[in-house]
Amino acid sequence: LEGPQNSGTTINADFQFHLKIAKASGNTYLFDIMKHLGTKLIPRTRMNSAYTGQSDRTAYLAGINAEHRQIYLAIAAGNVDAARSAMYLHLNSSRIRLHQTQASQELYSN
């Protein structure tokens, strides 16, 4: 779960993590759409990281890994409510990170 630090590798690992959860959920529609969309589902595939320093990327990936760890641990423990809460927190945090990155990139592009 610690994951690699290479951007392309982390994107694939992130996608595989989510794809395995979708498959385990038994929701074939979710699994099929995720397979179809592929890594485009991972927000950082659409973000220009040129404005982000190495320490920021490291902290960013560490935060994502911590969120993934909470999801994994809840699933491994069979705690449905904790898994649902951890996934909600992760998806909401991802949304916030994406909006913050987009806003900062707009500042640099003007």
Lay out the secondary structure:
Layout: H1 7-25, H2 28-37, H3 54-76, H4 80-109
Description of the structure:
The protein has about 110 residues and is an all-alpha fold. It has 4 helices and no strands. Helix 1 packs antiparallel against helix 2 and helix 3 packs antiparallel against helix 4. It is globular and about 45 Å long. It starts with 6 loop residues before the first helix and ends with a helix. The relative contact order is 0.12. The model has no long low-confidence stretch (mean pLDDT about 85).
Top keywords for this entry?
110 residues, mainly alpha
In DSSP terms, counting alpha (H) and pi (I) runs of 4 or more, how many helices?
Answer: 4
Computed CA radius of gyration, to the nearest angstrom:
15 Å
Beginning-to-end CA distance, first to last residue: 38 Å
Helix-residue proportion = over 70%
**Helices and strands, in N-to-C order?**
HHHH
Structural class: mainly alpha
Shape descriptor reads globular
Write a brief structural summary.
This protein is mainly α and 110 residues long. It has helices at 7-25, 28-37, 54-76, 80-109.
